[in-house]
Amino acid sequence: MPKSKRQSQNAYSSALVKWENAGDELSAAVSAYLQSCAVLDAFSGAPSDDAMIMASRADLSLGTRHTKIFEELFQSNVILARMRNKILSRPYSLPKAILAEIFMDAVYTPGPNDDPFPSMSEGLRRIYRRLHSLLAVCSTWRNLGITLSGLWSVIPVGDENSRHPTYSAFVLALQRSHSLTSNNNRRHLAVILSNFCASVSTAVLAQLSPFYSINIEAQFRPSTSSISDLLQRLNSSQSSGVLSELSIHQSHHEPDRAPPRLPQWNEYIGGRTNLNFNPLKRLIGSLSILRLRGVNVHWNQMAFSHKLGQIHLQSVVLGDHSKLNEFLGALVSASELRDVKLISVVALKLSAWSTQQNPQPLKISLPKLQSLLLEHLSLNVLQHVLASIPRGSHRIKVALTYQSQRTMYQPEEKNEDDYESDDGYKDGYRTLFKLLKSSKVDTLLLDAHQRESPCVNRAELHSLLKSLPSLKTLIMTSWKWDLGTILALERPDDGAFTAPETGSA
Predict the structure, then answer these.
(1) Using CA atoms, how far apart are residues 12 and 7, in angstroms rounded to an integer?
(2) Which of 26, 163, 233, 307 shows its CA 20 to 30 Å from the CA of 44?
(3) 429 with 402: CB under 8 angstroms?
(4) CA–CA gap between residue 486 and residue 493 (Å, rounded)
(5) CB 431 within 8 A of CB 407
(6) Residue 189, class by beta-carbon neighbours within 10 Å (0-12 exposed, 13-18 middle, 19+ buried)?
(7) Residues 208, 155: Cα–Cα separation, whole Å
(8) In whole angstroms, what is the distance from residue 8 CA to residue 51 CA?
């Protein structure tokens, strides 16, 4: 037996013997005290000069000694019961490392009925609601939870007008996550900007240390000025090489079918094209992951490092096709880029009446690219991106929606609703077929959301599959099937296409 374990066993045995001896002594003392009380009671009826002294001593004993004895006996009962439960209860017998892992899953893993993609504010409420429920179970769980820095790795910050998260929640999380900074573990800053009139207080920013990831959610629009100011102030607290992930989301409530328009200068992070005031310039140098949703940046000013492995761009109108080329050109600087996700990204072609010409797709090389996701993109953006990134060994995942057969144009001033192509539905579909056929699409997702008819067209599905010999996975959501359309998934006798793996939701 190791020396340390033998010493621990000896200390345990000694404490047990001492507790049993003290219990025996307590029992004997209580019995002796009971007998002495009975003897005093026998004298209480006889006349005595000391009767008043006896009554006074009894009052003192009842008021102090007995109260103290009862309190300490009660505490002893609580301690013994807790000790017994720890020994006999299965969760208490688990090693702390296992219990800590269970706690992490209980706090951070979404439940079966939870929204898998909540807003950041709702996600923070969920995390801290679970965390405080866990701490309320018992003192042992509370003590472990308070010392488990990983449970407090998400640091919530609100602006001066935010009701949630509160300043006290920020301070508490910052204190309890402190050990994460000393052993190079990961801390994540989550900032909620609720109002354009408020900003994150100087008192909060003064306490910030380097973070592994920074996540910003602005709940108003336009918020790029507030985001730019926050990024500029965060620059001073972030050490070079520590920040690895940056996520920025500008939420908005515009209807899905609202006509897209070219972004204005005040809708860009950093405002006008001033290289000296671009708050992203310093932060992106150490990033491995960059996620932007609903925000515009000056892509012609962006130069990534070899560390960037993933970029996620969503829900943004880049501008015309020259701006799309600027974005694609910025990717070239990320020599180790492996994963590109473009979701609901809009670029507007010049109208047929324009005196200018649309720029040709910029040919780029991404030698380490492994996965390219193109979701809910218009036909012109799909064509441009697939023409820019040559076919290689990377997987191409395309999610087609009602938008995928349409070309998006810059609206004419005389008719700002005229922003979609006037090509017929069938013409757009045929063009899309040809585009997908010339690309090595690995995974295809067909979404019936917002289509006039969610019924599967057997002929179209059959033709689509026939045009995609490289397709490995087909996912279809919100569609209505019948037996006839299901047969479209069957491999033809001539082996014209390989039946893919299918999924439906």
Answers:
(1) 9
(2) 26
(3) no
(4) 16
(5) no
(6) buried
(7) 10
(8) 55
- Nearest C-alpha neighbor of 223 from the set 323, 294, 319: 294
**Helix 139-147 × helix 96-108 angle, to 10°:** 80
> Tokens 């340390």 appear where?
4
User: Which tokens go with 170?
Assistant: 């920020």
The pTM of the whole model exceeds 0.85 = no
Q: Which amino acid is at 304?
A: F
Q: What span, in angstroms and rounded, lies between the C-alpha atoms of 365 and 367?
A: 6
Residues 207 and 168: their CA atoms lie apart, in Å, by 13
- For 109, 228, 238, 239, 418, the CA distances from 277, given in Å and listed in that order, are 39, 9, 17, 19, 36
Sign of the CA dihedral running 226, 297, 314, 345: positive
Give 188-221 pLDDT, tens digit per residue.
999 999 877 778 888 888 888 888 999 999 988 8
Residue in this structure with the two tokens 């000296």, named with its chain if needed: 276
pLDDT tens digits along 12-69:
888 889 999 998 998 999 899 899 888 888 877 766 667 778 888 888 888 888 888 8
Name beta bridge partners: 343: 314, 375
Helix (H, G, I), strand (E, B) or coil at 107: helix
Segment holding 29, helix H or strand E: helix 3-43
Give the pLDDT of residue 273. 55
Please state, in angstroms and rounded to a whole number, the distance separating the CA atoms of residues 98 and 88.
17
What CA–CA distance (Å, rounded) separates 136 from 167?
21
Contact between 220 and 192 under an 8 Å Cβ cutoff? The reply is: no
Instruction: Dig out the tokens for 489 from the structure.
Output: 């998934």
Q: Hey, which residues does 339 pair with through a beta bridge?
A: 310, 371
Cα separation, 461 vs 241, in Å, equals 49
* Secondary structure of residue 482 in the 3-state scheme: coil
Rounded CA-CA distance 235/282 in Å is 7
In terms of Cα–Cα distance, which of 502, 457, 454 is closest to 478? 454
Tell me how far apart the alpha carbons of residues 471 and 479 are, in angstroms, rounded to a whole number: 20
Measure the N-to-C terminal CA separation of the chain; round to a whole number of Å.
58
Strand partners, 268: 296
Rg (CA), the chain: 34
User: Side chain identity at 88, as an amino acid letter?
Assistant: L
